Known about the structure:
The chain is built from two helices and two strands; from the N terminus they run ααββ. It has helices spanning 2-5, 8-33; strands spanning 85-88, 111-114.
Amino acid sequence: xxxxxxxxxxxxxxxxxxxxxxxxxxxxxxxxxxxxxxxxxxxxxxxxxxxxxxxxxxxxxxxxxxxxxxxxxxxxxxxxxxxxxxxxxxxxxxxxxxxxxxxxxxxxxxxxxxxxxx
Length: 118
Protein backbone atom coordinates (compact mmCIF):
# COMPACT_ATOMS: atom_id res chain seq x y z
CA UNK A 1 0.00 0.00 0.00
CA UNK A 2 2.91 2.36 0.70
CA UNK A 3 4.16 1.90 -2.84
CA UNK A 4 0.82 3.20 -4.18
CA UNK A 5 0.97 6.36 -2.08
CA UNK A 6 4.69 7.02 -2.48
CA UNK A 7 5.89 5.93 -5.91
CA UNK A 8 9.53 6.46 -6.86
CA UNK A 9 8.73 9.59 -8.88
CA UNK A 10 7.10 11.23 -5.85
CA UNK A 11 10.03 10.34 -3.56
CA UNK A 12 12.52 11.79 -6.05
CA UNK A 13 10.41 14.96 -6.31
CA UNK A 14 10.37 15.36 -2.53
CA UNK A 15 14.13 14.81 -2.36
CA UNK A 16 14.77 17.29 -5.19
CA UNK A 17 12.65 20.05 -3.63
CA UNK A 18 14.26 19.44 -0.22
CA UNK A 19 17.76 19.67 -1.71
CA UNK A 20 16.87 22.82 -3.66
CA UNK A 21 15.42 24.58 -0.59
CA UNK A 22 18.42 23.67 1.58
CA UNK A 23 20.82 24.90 -1.13
CA UNK A 24 18.88 28.17 -1.53
CA UNK A 25 18.84 28.77 2.24
CA UNK A 26 22.55 28.04 2.54
CA UNK A 27 23.36 30.44 -0.30
CA UNK A 28 21.20 33.18 1.22
CA UNK A 29 22.91 32.84 4.61
CA UNK A 30 26.38 32.78 2.99
CA UNK A 31 25.65 35.98 1.06
CA UNK A 32 24.23 37.72 4.14
CA UNK A 33 27.30 36.85 6.24
CA UNK A 34 29.85 37.76 3.58
CA UNK A 35 32.07 40.69 4.57
CA UNK A 36 32.22 43.65 2.16
CA UNK A 37 35.35 43.72 -0.04
CA UNK A 38 36.44 47.19 1.17
CA UNK A 39 36.72 46.16 4.83
CA UNK A 40 39.40 43.51 4.31
CA UNK A 41 42.51 44.38 6.29
CA UNK A 42 45.87 42.67 6.04
CA UNK A 43 48.30 42.38 8.92
CA UNK A 44 52.04 41.95 8.72
CA UNK A 45 53.46 38.97 10.52
CA UNK A 46 55.65 41.28 12.60
CA UNK A 47 52.67 43.28 13.84
CA UNK A 48 50.63 40.30 15.00
CA UNK A 49 49.54 40.69 18.62
CA UNK A 50 51.08 38.24 21.08
CA UNK A 51 49.00 35.20 21.87
CA UNK A 52 47.92 35.07 25.49
CA UNK A 53 46.29 31.96 26.87
CA UNK A 54 43.70 32.84 29.46
CA UNK A 55 42.32 30.24 31.80
CA UNK A 56 38.96 31.15 33.19
CA UNK A 57 36.84 28.95 35.36
CA UNK A 58 33.16 29.17 34.59
CA UNK A 59 30.72 27.71 37.05
CA UNK A 60 27.82 25.70 35.74
CA UNK A 61 24.54 27.66 35.79
CA UNK A 62 22.70 24.53 36.89
CA UNK A 63 23.75 21.32 38.58
CA UNK A 64 24.69 18.54 36.22
CA UNK A 65 21.97 16.04 35.44
CA UNK A 66 22.37 12.51 36.77
CA UNK A 67 23.03 9.64 34.39
CA UNK A 68 19.82 7.91 35.46
CA UNK A 69 17.03 8.50 37.93
CA UNK A 70 14.86 11.44 38.85
CA UNK A 71 15.70 15.02 39.69
CA UNK A 72 13.68 16.30 42.65
CA UNK A 73 13.26 20.04 43.15
CA UNK A 74 12.18 21.08 46.62
CA UNK A 75 10.47 24.26 47.68
CA UNK A 76 10.48 25.22 51.32
CA UNK A 77 8.09 28.06 52.14
CA UNK A 78 9.28 30.63 54.65
CA UNK A 79 7.01 32.34 57.16
CA UNK A 80 6.39 36.02 56.58
CA UNK A 81 8.18 38.21 59.10
CA UNK A 82 6.16 40.05 61.71
CA UNK A 83 5.17 43.58 60.85
CA UNK A 84 7.43 46.06 62.63
CA UNK A 85 5.86 48.90 64.62
CA UNK A 86 7.22 52.24 63.52
CA UNK A 87 6.92 55.05 66.07
CA UNK A 88 7.24 58.55 64.72
CA UNK A 89 7.22 61.51 67.14
CA UNK A 90 6.41 64.92 65.68
CA UNK A 91 7.07 67.99 67.78
CA UNK A 92 5.26 71.15 66.74
CA UNK A 93 6.78 74.37 68.05
CA UNK A 94 4.80 77.53 68.52
CA UNK A 95 5.51 80.92 66.94
CA UNK A 96 8.86 82.46 67.85
CA UNK A 97 7.12 85.65 69.11
CA UNK A 98 7.15 85.40 72.95
CA UNK A 99 4.56 88.19 73.40
CA UNK A 100 1.84 85.97 71.93
CA UNK A 101 -1.22 85.57 74.13
CA UNK A 102 -1.70 81.92 73.11
CA UNK A 103 0.58 79.32 74.67
CA UNK A 104 2.57 77.04 72.42
CA UNK A 105 0.74 73.87 71.38
CA UNK A 106 1.91 70.78 73.23
CA UNK A 107 3.65 67.98 71.35
CA UNK A 108 1.26 65.50 69.80
CA UNK A 109 1.15 61.89 70.89
CA UNK A 110 3.41 59.48 68.99
CA UNK A 111 1.81 57.99 65.89
CA UNK A 112 1.95 54.23 65.46
CA UNK A 113 1.85 52.71 62.01
CA UNK A 114 2.31 49.10 61.02
CA UNK A 115 4.76 48.21 58.32
CA UNK A 116 3.65 45.98 55.49
CA UNK A 117 6.52 43.60 56.33
CA UNK A 118 8.48 44.10 53.14
